[in-house]
Specification:
- It is built from six helices and no strands.
- By secondary structure, the protein is mostly helical.
- It has one domain: Helix Hairpins (Orthogonal Bundle), CATH 1.10.287.
- The structure holds phosphoribosyl ATP (PRT).
Length: about 100
């Protein structure tokens, strides 16, 4: 199991955990909108690390982004497998063709 799949499984398990014992359970208990807000904040922090050219911090913030993306997906019952399947579908297709298909 990859670390991302492992993390997604942990996050899924935290849905039924006590919010006082788990950061993930606490965040999920606040609802999808709060999860989305946290994801947005972490994404901005990652962008700031890019803008500053702070490589070490970018690695740290990117990990936060991936974690909070998985929490946000879990909050809306979207699985990592679904997202990976979408990426697999796009593999080998041209990015320009994908853009054209979206109109
Ligand atoms: N990868 C992470 C992870 N990345 C970030 N975070 C938490 O996300 C929070 C976000 O940090 P911020 O500084 O933005 O937030 P904050 O200042 O703590 O909170 P506010 O500003 O929102 O009040 C931090 O408190 C981190 O602890 C994470 N919490 C958990 N995980 C993974 O999830 C697993 C389960 O964690 P628990 O649910 O806590 O058991 C862990 O073993 C990890 O593998």
């Amino acid at each position: 199991m990859t670390i991302l799949a492992q993390l997604a499984a942990t996050i899924e398990a935290r849905k039924s955990a006590d919010p006082d014992s788990s950061w993930t359970a606490k965040l999920l208990s606040k609802g999808p909108e709060k999860c989305a807000q946290k994801f947005g904040e972490e994404a901005i922090e990652a962008c700031m690390a890019v803008a500053k050219g702070d490589r070490e911090n970018l690695v740290y913030e990117a990990a936060d982004v991936l974690y909070h993306l998985l929490v946000m997906l879990a909050a809306r019952e979207v699985t990592l497998e679904e997202v990976l399947a979408e990426l697999a579908r796009r593999e080998g297709t041209s990015g320009l063709a994908e853009k054209a298909a979206r109109g």
